[in-house]
UniProtKB/TrEMBL annotation:
The lineage of its organism: Eukaryota, Metazoa, Chordata, Craniata, Vertebrata. This is Outer mitochondrial transmembrane helix translocase. Keywords: ATP-binding, Membrane, Mitochondrion, Mitochondrion outer membrane, Nucleotide-binding. Transmembrane segments: none annotated. Pfam families: AAA, AAA_lid_3. It comes from Poecilia latipinna (sailfin molly).
Amino acid sequence: MLLKDLPRDALLRPLSRNEVIGMLVRLSIFGAATYYSIKWVVEAMDPTSKQKSQAKKRAEEQMRRIGLEGITLTEYEMNIASLLVDPQTIKVSWRDIAGLDEIINELQDTVILPFQKRHLLPNSKLFQPPKGVLLFGPPGCGKTMIAKATAKASGCKFINLQASTLTDMWYGESQKLTAAVFSLAIKIQPCIIFIDEIESFLRNRSSLDHEATAMMKAQFMSLWDGLDTSLTTQVMVMGATNRPQDVDPAILRRMPATFHVGLPNAKQREDILRLILAGENLSNAINLREIAEKTDGYSGSDLRELCRDAAMYRVRDFVRKEQIRQIAQQLQSYEEEEGFIFLAQLPDRTNQSRQGPSTRIGYGR
């Protein structure tokens, strides 16, 4: 039947209660199916959706562990919060660092004291930690250990920022993540943002840089120390690098406190060796001062590897001696067993020799 053939009263009649409920149910089912279908398509198009969900779980766990459960965070701040490090879980302290007493004292006076004694001069614009601290020097000299010990001693929240976290395939997402770094740090201040190998992230800008990378660097510097930055904000950026010449000059300007962590001298190497070998079973013939003098040019990491190799050689020699001893015991037991079998067969051979040629088969004389 065509629509024009229906009577006018049938078209204008109100829907019954069951028809309205049925229509609402169908619309609800259609809406839910459409929502989940679109959500599935969007997640399928974004290869990082699984990583984001895992980062959210890690962030919630870290926030609960640090005691920041009541803070409301955005989606981008949750991604950055997954990089939070609880200072209480850091096992490195000043006692684990040897040969850098001068740098440690300067860090305690310049960085840690303003964080811990802020209440002494709450209205002062000068008594505050620096905006940035740069640790530079050859590899393996303890820059990362100093950063860990600083975070533990200051009691600040610690964000171990990685450049890969700020890169995203979608245009504009990197800028939102960069903004989330500082918005999160302000919410949980006092906070230290640590960037290891900072030259790979904030290196010298040039006209050859990608547009997204250049915008991300510019926004990072603007949020770090720009027009809207408050002087009372207790957020500090700490970077470590072994190539300070590759860091952008604008970044170096924002890091007024710079510390050169160089190769240790003979006295520092002796202190490092004494710290590394503490608790080890050493021979009385070992002279740490002599070893320190013979290891000129070694970093702290090199000295640790040297001691590790020495320990491995000791275990290796012991294992080889044990293997040789076991092989000797096996050979001895084998020879004893063969000798016993030979002695057991001697009577049979004697009987065979007594029987003479009559027992032999063949032609005889």
